[in-house]
Structure formats: structure tokens, C-alpha cells
Write a structure and sequence with these properties.
Length: 636
């Protein structure tokens, strides 16, 4: 992969030409086929690469807009709905996150209305902007449009990034700021054109100011943005020409500038008992955490699954290549064997590797104390993907160096392409689930007695059949619009002032968005005296108070929960709770006794004759108010 200026891997591509005097005709000198380039990429000029990149962004953005506006298979996630609810009450900060995501969503909804596509449009824009920064960073470090284009193409075959490219959570603005800060740092670390000069940049100081501003803005999206400075400082320490920056005031000034952006969050938390600090402490395991090796195994297994085993191995190979042992002449061991010149981009590779390894290592250590969400290590892949693209370009130098990696590369491509439809809508597997339930599950008992391979299959067949939840990681994002229409009709029938009360804060956010008129909704679990739910933003808004003095007292409600039977904590705070009457038979003293019991009203969501999920709710009459435990006893 080459680009503008002198291509870094041109020496590898021209290894044949330096193997013999130029005066000798090709017919005289027989060239070893293993030293020929693996791919002929002369047609990929910088202009072609940039046109392809622009076309890729245009097609991707257009396709995602159509995905959101034409029968989108997924409703808002609980987090997206929660951030939208925050955006209706703009503030300096919120319980678990900074204010940036709420302001971005409110700006979009102010233009396009309070609709599902409007909530998600900013994610599409931020994704395009991150791709542009990715291209520019790869181009700056390696002066190769081919490496830059290859990096962006790699991103487009990773299931995690494909699935997350349309969800407007805190991650799109956070990831963009992470990418932009890293790009800006290279203007201080490397020379003017990003090349392999031995100097630590050209002494420019403005990047440090810009980095501080970008990191500060990123903090307002996700507090983890401040962790960016850890791999940045390590990268400066590892790179000998860059160490002089650590003795200057500029990196520390950058941190100070970023710290100024914490002031709104600090002021807000000072007025609210530092709830964000308590929440982050619980989430990361710094408070109330416990050792768990299972969390580490789950993290590693999950990461391999969401980026693909081939790409995971390529990343490991790229990191090892970046820190490979070098000979006395400066060439790497593999270069010395192949007769190729020294690797000219060692500083750039190690810069990228340090960023990725340091942040992934941090999340890895966190997993020993807390459950790490699958998206937490994502920033590590920003630099590791660029490093992997460059590493693959060095393998393409000759057929011999490409051969060990071509299987893993094509496996990654095939894995990504096959996963693209699934990443956008796992419901494409519902016909497979239906077929298995029709043609396999009925034979479970028969095959269990047959022995052989049938017995092995029978052991893995569930008694009640396969469910959508087993193949669809987005099942919680489905059915909200349908449930909202049904519950809206029931709320209207309950009379004026009827409100929606939910067991879970994400349920409260989902109903707030999908109920007719998008009314305020209420969160109950933090009021429970047994199995108390954690605090959320709903507990901090005075107009969502459920106490005995609440204006909701005496009103009727719909309670959306998770239990099939009336939840005891809810039964206590209403005069009457209604659901569906069912007759149950019991055996008492040898006699069959029947009894009527109340069960939840259900809304079954199905697609392709496969049950996706069930919403359960009760009609409640005469709210009495709820009393909360002391805040010191509430989980965070």
C-alpha cells in the first residue's frame, strides 16, 4: 500500500529490481517468485483511493439513512431513549453521564422532530467524521492513501462498529473526540508531514491546546475520555525523540485545559451529592467490586466474537511486528532474512500500538473487579485498526510474507461480509429458528433414544424450542412502538391524570418516547424496600417524585414490569391492581382445588412466527405514594 511522496514499502515492492544490476535483462536473471509482490496495486493511486473513500462514505451514510427511515427493525434502545428524555430537560450534567449527548440529541430533534431517526442522525454524522479522521491519521503517519483506505475498509467489516454506527449513545461523540485528539497529537510528536524523521515533531505547541479542548469536550460525553491521556503519556515516554515533551509544560497544560471542561459536571454533582462519582465507582469496581476471573474470560471471548477471530489475531501480529527485535544494522529479524531494508515506520507503529495496548490493558485489569461492557475496549481498536492495515501492507510486499496471513485476512473479510446483514438485523435468522422448532425440536425425545449423532443433537435441543433471544442481541430494542400503542389506549381508558409507572428506568424511558404524546413517565425500583433498584436521573428530577406528597397520589396508572404476578411492592402502594384472571389447579389433601389468580396483561411481540419478547403490565387504581430508603442505602 503506497501513497503520496516516497512510499514506505516501495523498497519491499522493488526488492527484485535491486537483486541484480539493472543492465541485466529479465531473461538473464531469474527472479524468485516468492519475492514478487502479492498484489499488484499500481492502479490504486492517491486520487483513486480518495474517490473510493468518498464513495464509501456516501453510500454508507445514504444506506443508513434509508435503514432508519424505511421499516427500521429496531426501536430506540433503553439508553437512547433515556438520553432523549434527558434532552427534554437540558442541564449542566446528569446522574451517570455528562451533558453532551443530551444537547446533541436535542439539537437534532429541534430540526427533525422527536422521532426515532432524528435521535439517531447525529450518530451517522459522527461516524462519517470519525472515518474522515481515521483516513487522515493513517495518511499522515504512513503517507499512504492505500493504508488509509484499507483502514476504513477494515472498519466496515467489523460487526461491532457496523452495529454501533446507527445507535446514538454516548459512544459516537466520545469515539470521535478520542480519534480527533489522537490525530492532533501526531502534529506535536511527528515532523510536518508525519514522516519517519528522528526528531520529535517540529516544536509546534498549538496541538497541545487543541488536544486539551477536544479531550474536554469528549469528557462531557463520557468520563472515560480522560483516560486518553494515559496512553498518550506512555506513548511519549516510549518514543525517545518525544520524551522531551514530558519535560515541557505542554502536555500538562493540555490536561489542565481539559480539566476546565469538568466544571459544569463538578458544579452539578456538588448540588446532587456527588452521585456521578458514586455511580462510576460502582460501575468500574473501585467501590463494591470483587475479584472475578470469569469477567476476564467473558471480556476476551466477547471481544474475539465482536471483532472476529481473524482480525483479533492480525492485531496481535501487528503489535508484535511493531515491537519486533531488531538487528545491529537496524533491520528487523524478518527483514534481515528476506533481504529487505529496515522498517522505516517503527515510531509510527509503536505510537499506534502503545495507544491500543495501554487502553485495552486498562479495561482488562478493570475486568478483574467489575463486569466490563463489550463496548468499553472500543477506543483501543481505533489505533490498532490503523496499525493492522499498515501491517497487512507490509505483508503484501512479497508472496512469501503474505502467505501466512492471507487466510486470516480473507477469513476476516468473509466473516465481516457474512455478519453485515446480521449486524443490521439479527431477525434474518428468525426463519432458521422457526425451521429448527418445526423440524428438529419435535424429535428431541425420539432422537435421545436413538443414540449416535442424533443423541448428541437431542441433548442440545431445548424442550420448549429455540427463542429469538438466543440469536438476536437486539431483541430488547424491538416491540416498543407496538407496546406504546397498546399501553396508550389502556392509559386513556384509566381516566384523566393516569400515568405510566415502570419497574426499570429503561422501560420508563422507552415508554416516555413511544407513548402517545410522549408524556413524563416514572421509575419505581429505587423506591422498593426489598431488592432495591439503583438510583437514576429519574430520582433527581423533582417532577418525577413518587412520595406521599406527590400530585400523582390518588391517580390511576399502568405499571410496566417484568413479573407475571403482581409485584408485592406495587400491590402495597395502590388500592387495587388488576391484570388477567386465570384459574389454577392445585392438589391439597389429595383433592384438586381451583383458585383464581391475577396475572400480567401481556403484549407478545412476534416476527416470522417467532416470539421475540413479551411486555407485561397491570392496571393500577388509587396510587397512595411510595417511601424511599435513605439515600445512603440506595445502590448506585
Amino acid at each position: 500500500m503506497t501513497g503520496r511522496g516516497k512510499p514506505y514499502n516501495a523498497a519491499r515492492m522493488d526488492a527484485v529490481s535491486i537483486a541484480a544490476p539493472s543492465a541485466l535483462a529479465p531473461s538473464v536473471v531469474e527472479v524468485d517468485p516468492s519475492l514478487r509482490p502479492a498484489w499488484r496495486l499500481g492502479w490504486l493511486t492517491p486520487g483513486v483511493c480518495r474517490c473510493l473513500f468518498a464513495l464509501l462514505l456516501l453510500l454508507g451514510a445514504t444506506g443508513h439513512v434509508r435503514y432508519l427511515t424505511h421499516d427500521c427493525p429496531i426501536d430506540l434502545s433503553g439508553d437512547e431513549a433515556q438520553y432523549w428524555d434527558w434532552s427534554r430537560a437540558l442541564d449542566l450534567s446528569y446522574y451517570s453521564k455528562g451533558p453532551l449527548v443530551a444537547y446533541i440529541i436535542r439539537a437534532s430533534c429541534a430540526v427533525f422532530g422527536d422521532t426515532m431517526p432524528a435521535v439517531r442522525y447525529p450518530a451517522l454524522l459522527l461516524g462519517v467524521m470519525t472515518s474522515v479522521v481515521t483516513y487522515l491519521l493513517a495518511l499522515r503517519l504512513f503517507r499512504s492513501d492505500r493504508v488509509a483506505l484499507g483502514t476504513v475498509l477494515l472498519y466496515h467489516v467489523v460487526p461491532m462498529f457496523v452495529a454501533g454506527s446507527v445507535l446514538m449513545t454516548i459512544d459516537p461523540p466520545f469515539f470521535f473526540c478520542w480519534a480527533l485528539a489522537t490525530y492532533l497529537l501526531t502534529f506535536a510528536v511527528f515532523d510536518r508531514d508525519g514522516g519517519a524523521g528522528e526528531g520529535a515533531g517540529d516544536g509546534r505547541r498549538w496541538p497541545w491546546v487543541a488536544v486539551g479542548v477536544v479531550a474536554g469536550v469528549g469528557f462531557l460525553a463520557k468520563y472515560a475520555m480522560f483516560l486518553w491521556f494515559l496512553p498518550a503519556l506512555i506513548a511519549l515516554a516510549v518514543d525517545r525523540p518525544s520524551r522531551r515533551w514530558l519535560r515541557s509544560p505542554w502536555p500538562w497544560a493540555s490536561i489542565a485545559i481539559a480539566a476546565m471542561f469538568t466544571l459544569p459536571v463538578v458544579f452539578w454533582n456538588a448540588r446532587h451529592g456527588w452521585v456521578s462519582a458514586k455511580h462510576v465507582g460502582t460501575q468500574t469496581g473501585t467501590s463494591h467490586g470483587h475479584f472475578s476471573f470469569a469477567n476476564v474470560l467473558e471480556l476476551l471471548g466477547g471481544q474475539i466474537a465482536i471483532i472476529g477471530p481473524g482480525l483479533f489475531l492480525i492485531m496481535i501480529g501487528a503489535c508484535l511486528y511493531a515491537f519486533r527485535r531488531r538487528t545491529a544494522s537496524g533491520a528487523s529479524v524478518d527483514s534481515a532474512v528476506a533481504g529487505l531494508p529496515p522498517e522505516p515506520a517503527v515510531r509510527q507503529m509503536r505510537f499506534l500500538a502503545v495507544f491500543g495496548i495501554a487502553f485495552f490493558g486498562l479495561t482488562f485489569l478493570t475486568a478483574f473487579r467489575a463486569k466490563v461492557q463489550m463496548n468499553w475496549p472500543a477506543p483501543a481498536y481505533f489505533t490498532l485498526m490503523i496499525l493492522s492495515a499498515y501491517f497487512l501492507s507490509t505483508r503484501l510486499a512479497t508472496r512469501a510474507t503474505w502467505k501466512p496471513w492471507r487466510g486470516w485476512f480473507w477469513g476476516t473479510v468473509v466473516f465481516g461480509v457474512l455478519m453485515l446483514p446480521f449486524a443490521h438485523d439479527p431477525g434474518v435468522l428468525y426463519p432458521v429458528v422457526r425451521w429448527a422448532n418445526t423440524h428438529l425440536v419435535p424429535y428431541k425425545a425420539e432422537w435421545a433414544k436413538a443414540g449416535g449423532w442424533r443423541k448428541l443433537v437431542a441433548k442440545r435441543l431445548p424442550e420448549a424450542g429455540f427463542t429469538a433471544q438466543q440469536v438476536d442481541f437486539t431483541y430488547k430494542l424491538k416491540g416498543w412502538a407496538e407496546a406504546g400503542r397498546t399501553i396508550s389506549a389502556d392509559l386513556k381508558a384509566l381516566g384523566p391524570g393516569a400515568f405510566a409507572l415502570c419497574h426499570d428506568y429503561q422501560q420508563a424511558a422507552g415508554l416516555a418516547f413511544y407513548l402517545d404524546g410522549q408524556p413524563k413517565t416514572y421509575y419505581a425500583a429505587s423506591y422498593y424496600h426489598e431488592d432495591t433498584g439503583r438510583m437514576t436521573q429519574y430520582d433527581l428530577w423533582p417532577d418525577r417524585d413518587l412520595g406521599p406528597d406527590s400530585p400523582l397520589v390518588g391517580k390511576n396508572a399502568i405499571f410496566l414490569g417484568r413479573h407475571d404476578k403482581p409485584f408485592s411492592e406495587i400491590v402495597k402502594v395502590f388500592d387495587r391492581v388488576e391484570g388477567v384472571k386465570v384459574t389454577k389447579a392445585y392438589l391439597a389433601d389429595g383433592k384438586v382445588v381451583t383458585k383464581q389468580e391475577t396475572r400480567a396483561i401481556t403484549i407478545d411481540i412476534a416476527k416470522d412466527d417467532v416470539k421475540v419478547r413479551t411486555f407485561r403490565y397491570f392496571r393500577c387504581y388509587g396510587f397512595k405514594g411510595m417511601t424511599r430508603l435513605p439515600e445512603s442505602k440506595l445502590p448506585h
